[in-house]
C-alpha cells in the first residue's frame, strides 16, 4: 500500500524531515532491508514489545516509497540539466538573432534618411528609437530577451520598413525571430518550472520515517532479548548501518632499530701521578723588637767606643817622632786608653 505523506501531521512531517537530514539514502535503505529480513523470522517476538504488524507494513511501504522517490529525483535532476542546457542554447541563439535584426534596422534607417519625404524621416526616427530601447542585451533572462526580439520583429513588420528591407533579408529575419521567440519562452517556462527540491524533501521525510521505525524495532528487540534470554535477537536489530562502528586505531609497534657498529672510543689518558710537593721550609716566627718611643740610654764607655770607631787613625810609621797611637785595642776593660 503506497504511503500518503500528505496525511501526515505537521509535527510528524517536520520531525521526519529533521531526522532525515542527518542520514543518507543508501544507509537508510540498507538498514530497512536488514530489519525487514530479521522480521521475517522474529516478528512474533517483537509483537509484544511495541513493534506490531502495522509497523512492519509501514516500514516496508516506506522502503519502497524511498526507492521510487530516489528514482524520481534522479530523473528530475537529469531533466533539469537537459532543460538548463537547452535554455542556455536558446538564449545564445536569441542574442545572435537580436544582433542581426538590429544591424538590419540600422541599415534601413540610413536608407530612409536618404529618401526625400516626411514619412520616410519619421520612420527612420522610429527605427532609431527602437534601437535605443533595445540597446542593452539581457545576459541570462530569457523572457527579457524574448521581449526585445518581439519589439524588433514588430518594427520589421511595419510596411514602410518591410518595403526597405525586402531585398536585404527582412522576410528571413522575421521568420527566424518568430521561431526564436517561441523557443525562448518555452525554454524559460520549463527552466523555471522544474526543480528537484520537492523530490529531495520527500526523500528526507521518508528517510526520517524509516529511521524512526528502525529505532522502535531496535528497542523492541532489546526488550524481547532480555525476556527470552537471547542476546542474538538484539544483535539482529542493531542499527549498524545508521551508526557504523568507529575504527579504532591500532597501537603502533616500534620496530627495533638496526644495531649500529660500535666504534671503540680512544681510552682516556690516565692522569699523571702527582709528584710530591717540595716541603716548604718551616716558617719560624721571630719576634721583632718593637721600636721604643723612649731615647736609648748609652753608657759613657759605649759613647767613647763609638767615637773612636768614627775617627781615622793615622799609623805611627807615617808620622815620625810620634810614638803614641790610639787604637781600639789600646783600651782597657775599664774603657781607658793606654799609652805605649
TrEMBL record:
It comes from the Bacteria. Residues 253-275, 319-340 are annotated as: Disordered. This is Methyl-accepting chemotaxis sensory transducer. It comes from Chondromyces apiculatus DSM 436.
Amino acid at each position: 500500500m503506497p504511503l500518503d505523506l500528505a496525511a501526515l501531521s505537521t509535527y510528524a512531517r517536520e520531525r521526519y524531515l529533521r531526522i532525515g537530514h542527518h542520514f543518507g539514502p543508501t544507509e537508510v535503505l540498507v538498514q530497512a532491508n536488514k530489519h525487514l529480513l530479521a522480521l521475517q523470522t522474529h516478528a512474533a517476538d517483537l509483537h509484544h514489545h511495541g513493534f506490531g504488524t502495522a509497523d512492519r507494513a509501514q516500514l516496508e511501504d516506506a522502503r519502497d516509497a524511498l526507492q521510487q522517490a530516489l528514482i524520481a529525483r534522479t530523473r528530475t535532476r537529469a531533466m533539469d540539466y537537459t532543460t538548463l542546457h537547452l535554455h542556455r542554447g536558446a538564449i545564445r541563439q536569441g542574442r545572435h538573432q537580436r544582433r542581426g535584426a538590429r544591424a538590419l534596422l540600422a541599415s534601413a534607417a540610413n536608407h530612409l534618411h536618404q529618401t526625400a519625404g516626411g514619412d520616410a524621416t519619421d520612420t527612420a526616427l522610429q527605427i532609431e528609437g527602437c534601437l535605443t530601447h533595445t540597446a542593452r542585451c539581457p545576459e541570462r533572462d530569457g523572457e527579457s530577451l524574448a521581449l526585445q526580439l518581439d519589439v524588433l520583429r514588430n518594427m520589421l513588420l511595419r510596411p514602410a520598413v518591410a518595403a526597405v528591407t525586402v531585398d536585404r533579408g527582412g522576410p528571413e529575419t522575421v521568420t527566424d525571430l518568430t521561431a526564436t521567440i517561441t523557443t525562448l519562452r518555452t525554454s524559460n517556462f520549463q527552466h523555471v518550472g522544474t526543480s528537484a527540491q520537492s523530490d529531495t524533501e520527500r526523500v528526507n521525510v521518508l528517510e526520517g520515517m524509516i529511521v524512526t521505525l528502525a529505532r522502535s524495532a531496535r528497542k523492541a528487540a532489546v526488550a524481547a532479548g532480555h525476556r527470552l534470554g537471547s542476546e542474538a535477537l538484539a544483535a539482529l536489530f542493531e542499527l549498524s548501518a545508521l551508526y557504523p562502528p568507529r575504527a579504532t586505531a591500532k597501537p603502533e609497534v616500534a620496530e627495533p632499530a638496526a644495531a649500529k657498529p660500535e666504534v671503540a672510543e680512544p681510552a682516556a689518558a690516565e692522569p699523571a701521578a702527582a709528584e710530591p710537593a717540595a716541603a716548604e721550609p718551616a716558617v719560624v716566627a721571630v719576634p721583632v723588637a718593637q721600636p721604643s718611643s723612649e731615647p736609648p740610654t748609652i753608657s759613657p764607655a759605649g759613647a767613647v767606643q763609638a767615637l773612636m770607631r768614627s775617627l781615622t787613625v793615622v799609623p805611627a810609621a807615617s808620622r815620625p817622632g810620634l810614638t803614641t797611637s790610639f787604637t781600639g785595642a789600646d783600651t782597657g776593660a775599664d774603657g781607658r786608653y793606654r799609652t805605649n
